[in-house]
Amino acid sequence: MPVPSLPRPRPTARAVVVALVAGAVALVPGTAYAHGRPAAPPAHGRPVGPPPRPVNHAPDRPVDVGTSNPWTDCSTSAPTPLRSTTPTLRAVLSDVDGGVLEAVFQVRDGRTKRPLWSATTAPQGSGVSHAVTVPEGVLRDGRTYEWSVQGRDAAGRKSPEVRCRVAVDATAPGPSQVTAVPGAGAVYAEDAVSGGVGVAGAFLLEAPGTDDVVGFLYAFDGGPARVDLEPGATAATVTWTPTTAGPHGLSVQAVDAAGNVGPERFYRFTVASASSSPTGNARWTLDEGAGTTATDATGGQVLTLSPSTTWTAGLQEELAAMTDGALLLDEADDGAATAAPLLDTTGSWSVAAFVRADGSAPGTVVSQDGEGTDAFRLGTGTVACEDGVDLCWSLSVAGADGAGGTTVTSTVPVVPGAWVALFAVRDAAQGTVRLDACSFGTVDEPGDQVPVEGATASAAAGVASTGPFRLGGAQDGASPWSGAISGVRTWGGVVDVAQERRLCSMGA
User: Fold this and answer.
1) Prediction pTM value
2) Alpha-carbon gap, residue 32 to 389, rounded angstroms
3) Which domain of life is it from (predicted)?
4) Per residue in 110-148, pLDDT tens?
């Protein structure tokens, strides 16, 4: 019996759609299915879908931020002093993506943060400096401000903002004041003749009525220099040593924290010539090496040697193989002296002597004759030495009546065969005396050449000098020096430790 044929089911709407899509896909060249999904495109084909969108990074944080005209760096904390009301603001902008960037500058009130002015620069390439000048009328002298800069790219993305604080100070300091002060070899008063060639002078620089001065520009005879004030100080002292006699000038200008420079103060003074040098200034290098006299390098008094005194190698020749002479004092009658008084021992005076001790007994290196006694003796002694020390460097100064004198000593040890520099100083204004020393040592054991400042002692008045200035002994012939003297300098005033340092570094 024939099998009856069954009627075919009608396709559903979904089946029709799937079939149509499948047929359409089959007609597209290069399209295939894998497990019901489109297969990967062939190697020679392009990826299916849109390309990835590029990423636009924000510009970098601005660098080299500050001002020019005048030049300052950016400070985000304490306001930077700024001596202009129309500064140029600057910054370097960069972007990892390259392209062009513009800088957006803005100025705000430092207290209220209220915007006062802004400007945008023309677009420039990455890594380029941008700058704008603040116009007149925006900034006012004496006010504090905050300014900022931010980079912006062509798509509008912005960099981090950098903010800087400034304090506008466009007012220069007032006139400087110059005062010649004690502390060096001479006091060079204004419009006066004083001092001498090789005699240092100290000058106090001030700017009264100005509270923000940080230093002074100064020049002696046109040689420019600057001295900065110590924190909290309002004045500075500068020292100068003339190399020629005659008129000289010191110009001074105060400088404030913003860099403003005050008006010039010109101070005139005259350095005395050798023939008119004040009493007490002398320098004997003792480099003659032969003969019976030693010449004062300042043109003053000559030292006449005793018949038994001889010459020998000096400090620098013995320690540094440099040409240098000295007096050798190895007999009781050895020594040298001037024909007349040198120092005014009733006033301020200073003596520097470069000496070597060859013995262990007390002795006198330098002395000045007074009425019936020595106005002072400088050498070695046994009085007032430190505990346990039998012999020390010593300075004895007689009182005004020739009695009741004062003795000061140094802690620098007396070492036979070793060189030292001694500095005897009497300050009449302070009524004090002191003895400083620095050690040069020996070839085998060099010293540090650093002045050791001795303790000061009261010496209200001194006996007047009436006779010669002596090397190697005193007027009574007692305590002759055993050793060598390589150089002697004297001043009719007070030398300071700075001058001592220079001499200790130079030698005799």
Assistant:
1) 0.51
2) 112
3) Bacteria
4) 999 999 999 999 999 999 999 999 999 999 999 999 999
Residues 418 and 347 in one domain: yes
Of 108, 107, 65, give the one whose Cα is nearest residue 90.
Answer: 65
CATH number of the domain encompassing residue 182: 2.60.40.10
Q: Are 211 and 338 contained in the same domain?
A: no
Query: Do residues 68 and 90 touch, judged by C-beta distance below 8 A?
Result: yes
pLDDT, residue 22, reads 42
| Listed residues 276, 311, 346: the one ending a domain | 276
> Is residue 327 within 8 Å of residue 313, measured between CB atoms?
no
> Is there a single domain that holds both residue 368 and residue 256?
no
In a domain, 143, yes or no: yes
- pLDDT tens digits for 278-315? 568 899 999 999 999 999 887 778 999 999 999 999 99
Residue 205 sits in the same domain as residue 234 = yes
Rounded distance, CA 458 to CA 426, Å? 10
Query: Is residue 322 located within the same domain as residue 289?
Result: yes
The answer to whether the bond into 70 is cis (omega within 30° of 0) is yes
Domain interval for residue 339:
282-506
**Pairing assessment for the beta strands 213-220 and 223-228 based on DSSP bridges:** antiparallel
Residue 35 included in any domain: no
Greatest C-alpha distance within the chain: 175
Q: Please, what is the Cα angle at 287 between 281 and 288, to 5 degrees? A: 105
Do 406 and 362 belong to one domain?
A: yes
What are all long-range contacts of 102-105, with beta carbons under 8 Å and residues at least 24 apart?
102/130, 102/151, 102/152, 103/62, 103/130, 103/132, 103/149, 103/150, 103/151, 103/152, 104/149, 104/150, 104/151, 104/152, 104/158, 105/132, 105/147, 105/148, 105/149
pLDDT at site 53: 79
183 in the same domain as 242: yes
Number of domains comprising the chain:
3
Of 243, 314, 303, 234, which Cα lies nearest the Cα of 486? 314
Q: Report whether 378 contacts 345 (CB < 8 A).
A: no
Among 114, 148, 168, the domain-final residue is 168
CA distances in angstroms from 427 to 185, 289, 342, 460, 486, listed in the order given: 11, 34, 17, 9, 25
Q: Which two tokens stand for residue 370?
A: 């007074």
Contact 504, 448 (CB under 8 A): no
The pLDDT assigned to 31 comes to 38
273 pLDDT band, cuts 50/70/90, is: low
- pLDDT, mean of residues 207-222: 93
Are 151 and 183 in the same domain? Answer: no
| Residue 149 included in any domain | yes
